Amino acid sequence: MSEDVESTHLYALYTCHVNRRHASTQEAPPAEAAPSDDAASAAGPAEPDAPEDNFSLSVVATNLKAENEVELRASMVKRLTRGLMHASSGSVTVLDIGLGEVGSACYYRLLQQPGEEVQELAELSASPTLSSVCMDRYIVCLVDPVSSPLDLFRSELDTFSFSLLSLLDAWMSRLEELRVRLASWFQQVAGFTTRCPARYQEDVSVLLHVGLTGCQLTFQGPNQDAQLKEDTEKFVTACSLSSLLNTTPDNKPAPPSDQFLVEVDSTAEHSNSHAENAATVVLSLEGEEHKFSCETVSRFCKTWGEKVLSASNVSAFQVRQVLDDFKLQVIQDMNAFKRLLLQAETDHYALYRCLVFARNCGHDLLQSPAVLDDPGLASFGSQDVLKVLQEYQK
Questions:
Q1: Over the range 226-262, which residues count as b (16 or more CB within 10 Å of their CB) and which as e?
Q2: Of the candidates 5, 43, 44, 228, which lies 20 to 30 Å from 148 by C-alpha distance?
Q3: Strand 104-111 to strand 289-292: parallel, antiparallel, or no bridges (unpaired)?
């Protein structure tokens, strides 16, 4: 990344207001005599009311040029009016605000305090107390001047924007701190994808291994670098399959999702509690030196580690795309293996194909919790096939 990356990534933070004509109820004018038919026909057909914006925004902090900020603000007001602004999560879109020839990538989100009832602003526009409600709400916009795939970092962007709430309570006294934090948003959101490969080099494959196998990563050593520790944890999370499974790392049900690529039943009787018995990988940090306790890494992780190192020389977006492709390949392998395994219950040739596939895929499918704890493989036949394959693998 270039040294001036922070200056090339822009931001704007707004407070949300409601126009007074919409924020308070007014007494109805006294009834007047109905116009005569002649007068009504002379006046012609009634014209519909002109559309009016319900919302307006005030700038708290920004590093955009005035002309670009005006365009961004107008775009946000339109989204508020149409009900396209949400407090539960942010959105990524491409806007033409005069920065790039093909538009600029923009993440935007309505911020509200935790515990406050989630209520869309579009639904509140008829409330007589709306102005007091919206004065405590903020809209954050994070802008990449080019049309980049910013949505690859959607979860990190949501986490970063939510972390701003602690500063917004007293932003008038902490304005400079708020500006510094906003100015470095890209480094905080995406910088870990390039800093980790730069630090660990070939050992980045160990981080892929930790994310793939669900191992617990612990840190040891004096004077640990807090930034490096945070980057490493983020990188492992980005490699982890937990977001694609319907159980969390602590073996509890995960929040609802649109669709899971792999179904795991943590309460099934055949479960061996692999999450609870997961191995621990220790990372020792001392100055510029590091050492992982894990000595064996699969060929699969080494191959993808090389791809990560190559992508880190291009951009953070390229690294994140490689990590997503890494997880997709694992999911495809798991699904193909499970189909073969089910066939092997009644077909000896399919059993042989299972063994060959498990050996050639490059990672240990026979020890994967996503395979061993799959409810579709809970039958005695499937469990017997797994035991036979595990014996051949020894």
A1: eebeebbebbbebbbbbebbbbeeebeebeeeeeebb
A2: 228
A3: unpaired
Distance (Å, whole) CA 334 – CA 71: 47
Q: How far apart (Å, rounded) are the C-alpha atoms in residues 314 and 376?
A: 41
Scan for tokens 């396209």, then name that residue.
84
Phi then psi for 100, rounded to 5 degrees? -120, 160
Cα–Cα distances in angstroms (integers) from residue 305 to residues 57, 281, 330, in the given order: 45, 17, 14
What would the mean pLDDT of 272-284 be, rounded to a whole number?
66
As a dihedral over the C-alpha atoms of residue 63, residue 67, residue 72, residue 78, rounded to 10 degrees, the angle is 150
State the pairing for strand pair 91-95/138-144: unpaired
- Token couple for 46: 């009634």
What is the distance between the alpha carbons of residues 34 and 42, in angstroms, rounded to a whole number? 14
Task: Give the β-pairing of 289-292 and 280-286.
Answer: antiparallel
- Per residue in 363-393, pLDDT (tens digit) is 877 777 667 666 667 677 777 788 888 777 6
DSSP string, 209-241: HHHHHTPEEEEESSS--HHHHHHHHHHHHHH-S
**Count of residues making up the chain:** 394
In this structure, are residues 106 and 92 in contact, taking their beta carbons and an 8 Å threshold? yes
Token pair of 171 as six digits: 């932003």
pLDDT in tens, 297-323: 888 999 999 999 999 999 999 999 999
